[in-house]
């Protein structure tokens, strides 16, 4: 079973890597939270991660950029209470704002969105997020960087193997997202460009408790 | 969007497309890149089985589309959505406008939907005073330019970064760079503001899962998530052909769709929406969720034994990606709204005969689309079927088709005409073997290749059976000559039969055989083509022979694939047609069967030979290794090239209907062959020989074009 799990983790890592997802193993949730905060701290150092506010924009679009808070902002809807306390402390120390709801008011830009995936699909490197909650959904859509935690034991070999689980999600009103890599387009001259409407970067932290000890 | 009123206008539009240098280069690069993607994109997947599974799932869904619709509606409404059914494009647009009015919406953001293109929804809503903004980057670009898409997946593939930069400069009122990354970021910021202020989102859907009432939508940019989340109202416009029974069926299609479309194992996002979800922008706290199903002729299609498979289409765009005509002229000239091979078919059913009547003729029948289709749609067959209907419902009967049907069905008349032709052709041939002096009035567009003259003596008059009567024959074979080899290139048949002398093959040539009927099938004259099929089967009894051998890949493919189809409805001949089809074999495969010694040669001495795979051989008959092996056995050094399996551009009567396109395809082919440095170019079809040899001669290229039989004979 352990061999099987490590095989799926490795396949997930390879497939996700092939579509520009940054995959990191973490042993504990605390490590994952610290990683997400570090991503946020380091974020502006990378010029490629600019999301367009510095270019020539029409007035209404520029105005929305202006609404973006100057302090760095992290969104972490749907996190467990204990994790939130820890994250709040980490963000405070790093001078990062943290929100858990009302994300729609920050459409101008959230630096990092932190979420927990329901499960993963190994053969395509896909995250599956059951996100009927609007804030959770928005965290995966409007954040410039999306950091998702995925438990190693929650990786299915392929989508077919997860069909029943999906059907259970769909049994009431529901919004479920398959996320595979950052947002991308090739609509201009077929040149692949990352970060159109959604995140410019996707980090997947594979939480494998069995490696902790 | 192709809107020509007559053939002349349509050819003018095609010529303009051919002269669009940027588009030509962009599409050509894409065609080559896509070929590479295809090799790797189904890695680890049994593609044939996947195609079969997708086809079966879609067929089963369409067979009970009504029941699936009701099941979907019940489930989706239980989850808080409102489901509508629109009989026509106009009805769908009205429903959507009504939803907008009832909810006081004015600003609409939209994600990509071919179905909304089909109903011309944007124009309709804009005329009603709504602001509609496309948010898929490519769609936004073409919307700003007031154009339709030129590809179903990459709608702005025909535009350069410079054009986009100029467009964005206009839109933002600020000077823009031509750096693509920067342009994409500008679009991100400009459109983000639209999402924030919009009160209604319109999407399409790739799946509508009946068992749960769930919509599934694929996207790469992330705009679908925003369109379906930020505004308080969401309307999804969905063709009823997107209904699938189960989550598992949707996942099966999802395995094939992105792989075939863009070579991705999966798109960046797949969004699954069931019912009305929480919405902060909505006063009720729940999304105002509407799903509008569009019929627009689909129910009628679903019930048709031949055409229902058109509804298997998953809109991946691959049939355009591999089409040699699309590669040259792009989607604006090769589609009304739906583009590529499937567009030729759907245009007729969704937008009417008038929009399709010129498009439907623009097909080489090269079968590349059929091979690539991830749903296993027999696209060339459906194109021919639509063409048949279009031809027979025209106000004026199509005279060349009727004349051809009259003549070809009367073998003696046809052959007498061909025989007398060789006397009257003298003024145009000047006693050469080419028709060099054709009058400009009729032929000025056809002079991109030298056309061959009729032979002095047809093969049938030169046939000497005595040499083909071995005492203990291993195979009893009927030779089917085909008209082009019989009357224009008898030397190919003479070479081919010569190679069998001394072998244990008994060869019969039955004088009563007629044209195979392919030209009539291609002209939409299916009745006359069926008559010819019956005639040939009556004269060549498959029960008496081990093989029906033909040196023409086109005749072979037509007899093998289309005879059973054309005679399917006639119980008496149905079995006979299948038996006949089973016996048909091409020359290369047959020579390998007879044995290496029959084909071995020494005179070639390693001469470099390129090969052109006739469409009807490599895709029609599925024969690909045999001819390459044969060349090596005959002592040639076979040199491969990238365009080996690309059509030569002849397509039978196609090259006469669309000479400019045919010439451009031929150019491309000969250029690719020249790069190999080969001295000879070998192929297995007299039609391809005619096109390639005539083109090489006209262009003064040093390469010699030979039929396989001639190549073998020369080395013997």
From TrEMBL, chain A:
InterPro entries tied to this protein: FTHF_cligase-like_sf, LUD_dom, NagB/RpiA_transferase-like
Occurrences of domain LUD (ranges): 9-207
Pfam family, one: LUD_dom
Record Gene3D superfamilies: NagB/RpiA/CoA transferase-like (3.40.50.10420)
Highest taxon listed in the record's lineage: Bacteria
Protein's name in the database: Lactate utilization protein
Automatic annotation (TrEMBL), chain B:
PROSITE patterns xrefs: 4FE4S_FER_1, 4FE4S_FER_2
UniProt keyword Iron, yes or no: yes
The 4Fe-4S ferredoxin-type domain, residue ranges: 303-331
Database matches in NCBIfam families: quin_L_LdhH
Superkingdom of origin organism: Bacteria
Sequence intervals crossing the membrane: 333-350
Name of the protein this chain belongs to: LUD domain-containing protein
Keywords: 4Fe-4S, Electron transport, Iron, Iron-sulfur, Membrane, Metal-binding, Repeat, Transmembrane, Transmembrane helix, Transport
UniProt record, GO biological process: lactate metabolic process
Pfam families in the record: CCG, Fer4_8, LUD_dom
Species per Swiss-Prot/TrEMBL record: Desulfatitalea alkaliphila
GO molecular function, one term: metal ion binding
